[in-house]
């Protein structure tokens, strides 16, 4: 870890409460381990009931990936301590926030856990990244406090099989008549990116929206965008024209919730 004071160390992943800072789960990420067993497999070996859930068709994360370890750690807490309301809200920083993980943990926990966090542009999937990049460019030129909303899209169910069937059918045609398979995209349920202009452009993700937007991209002054993000909430920021008091900006409530639960850590 070249950016750290000590280059070498042991990395652990943990699930921590935002209020009490109680550590609910702690697990080694097995970096540098020569074993073929993955961290998620080691975890599910201790808690076997989680393994079959990890292999469900609607949990679209490879059981061998690092993301699978995050998935079983968060899902395990939901399994042990069920929410009386059937709803649990998880906030994460930009290292962990990604749509594939949020979608998988929602399925893994039978719809209980929803996620909000900041996002790194380089972890946004290929079907969503171009729209987010376009929005980032527009918002970068806007005034502080301006924002846009980009609805997440997913591949329609059964895309892999349809692509295989398409390619098989294309082999029966002359080369001049063959075509590349064009997948069908659909708006993801209650999921989207908020591109917000603070001192710099910040990308937020949430699959805890009030509703699924009807358009791919919405301006921040759109009534639909505001409603989907649970309304607006005042946040305070220092600006060049203020000395004694911070200026108030009306931001999407999703951002205010993130600020509250992350306590300025990102």
Shape: globular
Q: How many strands, which pairing sense, and closed or not: the largest β-sheet?
A: 6 strands, mixed
Q: Tell me the helix content.
A: 25-40%
SSE succession: EEHHHEHEHEHEEEHEEH
User: What's the N-to-C terminus distance?
Assistant: 18 Å
From the alpha carbons, calculate the radius of gyration and give it in angstroms. Answer: 21 Å
Structural class: alpha+beta
Our count of domains comes out at 2
Strand order of the largest sheet: 3-4-7-6-5-8
Low-confidence parts? none
Counting DSSP H or I runs of 4 or more residues, the number of helices is: 8
Determine the strand fraction and express it as a percent band.
15-25%
Average pLDDT across residues? 87
* Number of DSSP E strands: 10
Protein name: PiggyBac transposable element-derived protein domain-containing protein
Q: What attributes does this structure have?
A:
30% helix; two-stranded antiparallel sheet; 2 domains; 266 residues; PiggyBac transposable element-derived protein domain-containing protein; alpha+beta; six-stranded mixed β-sheet
Describe this structure in words.
The protein is an alpha+beta fold. It contains 8 helices and 10 strands. The protein folds into 2 domains: 1-118, no CATH class; 123-266, no CATH class. Helix 1 runs parallel beside helix 3 and helix 3 runs parallel beside helix 4 (99-108). The longest helix is centred in the first third of the chain and has 15 residues, at 66-80. The chain is globular and about 70 Å long. The two termini are 18 Å apart. This is PiggyBac transposable element-derived protein domain-containing protein. It comes from Phytophthora rubi.
């Amino acid at each position: 870890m070249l950016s750290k004071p000590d280059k070498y160390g042991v990395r652990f992943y943990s699930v921590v409460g935002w209020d009490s800072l109680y550590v609910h789960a702690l697990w080694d990420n097995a970096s540098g381990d020569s074993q073929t067993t993955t961290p998620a497999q080691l975890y599910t070996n201790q808690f076997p009931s989680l393994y079959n859930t990890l292999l469900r068709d609607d949990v679209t994360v490879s059981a061998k990936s690092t993301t699978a370890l995050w998935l079983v750690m968060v899902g395990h807490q939901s399994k042990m301590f069920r929410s009386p309301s059937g709803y649990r809200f998880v906030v994460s920083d930009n290292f962990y926030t990604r749509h594939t993980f949020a979608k998988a943990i929602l399925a893994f926990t039978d719809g209980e856990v929803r996620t909000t966090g900041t996002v790194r542009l380089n972890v946004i999937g290929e079907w969503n990244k171009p729209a987010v990049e376009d929005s980032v460019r527009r918002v970068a030129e806007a005034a502080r406090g301006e924002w846009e909303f980009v609805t997440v899209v997913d591949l329609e169910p059964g895309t892999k099989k349809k692509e295989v069937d398409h390619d098989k059918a294309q082999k029966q045609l002359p080369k001049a008549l063959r075509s590349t398979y064009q997948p069908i995209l659909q708006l993801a349920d209650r999921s989207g990116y908020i591109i917000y202009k603070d001192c710099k452009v910040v990308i937020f993700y949430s699959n805890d929206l009030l509703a699924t937007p009807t358009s791919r991209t919405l301006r921040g002054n759109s009534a639909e965008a505001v409603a989907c993000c649970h309304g607006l909430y005042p946040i305070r920021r220092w600006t060049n024209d203020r000395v004694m008091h911070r200026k108030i900006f009306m931001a999407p409530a999703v951002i205010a919730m993130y600020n509250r639960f992350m306590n300025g850590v990102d």
